[in-house]
Amino acid sequence: MSIASANYAINEWLDRNFDKFHPDKSWRTAIQFNLDPRVVWLMWGGLVFIGLGAAWLAGKVMFIAGSLFVLQGIFYNVPPLRSKDRAYLDVVSESINNPIRLTIGWAMIDPTTLPPASIILAYWLGGAFLMAAKRLSEYRETNAAGQREELEKYRKSFLHYSELSLLISCVAYAMMSNFFMAVFFIKYRVEFIILLPMTTYLFCYYLAISMKPGSVAQKPENLLHERNLIVTMSALFVLFLLALFIDMPFIETLAVQKYIVLP
Q1: What is the pLDDT of residues 57-95, one digit of tens each?
Q2: What is the pTM (predicted TM-score) of this model?
Q3: What's the rounded Cα separation, in Å, for the pair 27 and 19?
Q4: CA dihedral 152, 155, 160, 161 (to 10 degrees)
């Protein structure tokens, strides 16, 4: 939590000259008030120190994950790296927070191992899908309002995006995320395969949400108001519990090398 706060602190400070072109973010403190950069960086350093100190006490895996979290914040926000200004790299570098947070949660339970690579990649690419869908929604709305130039001033990466390229990237991230989920399911519990139709629907439904005017995909904190999305997630959770506790021998044939023998 401390490291996440540190990342948000420099994000708001370093984005102040760009966020002023955003209709909502233009009201942020760093834009409305003349902040002392020394105080901002001192706060960042203090939060990082606290976060990494706590991670060090928690164990090696936690400390490495925390360090990667700090480096991600620097790579994503600080010039001349500032990956958020580079098309596609902005999405990939922002969504890497997902597997880092997954690893932190995993280390709380088992500090001696790491999550399987397949679930790390599935979680990473799922996050990339969400980030790309958010950008697609922002692009469509501002372009429809004739404010494309404002959007490009807000985030340079939009100079190299189009509605089609963002849509294709959303589909690609969703497909790859589902692929790595399938790998994980087959390797560790094949019954989880029954989740894939629902996860596919979930990706499609979220993409449809992002295409709506004024989409909540731009403000994920409002997703709780999407009733159908909550119902879908609840159904997915019920399926997860069924697959977790009920053995389904007939599904195991999917993981066995076997030809269909014709009569």
Answers
A1: 988 999 999 999 999 999 998 888 899 999 999 999 999
A2: 0.90
A3: 9
A4: -90
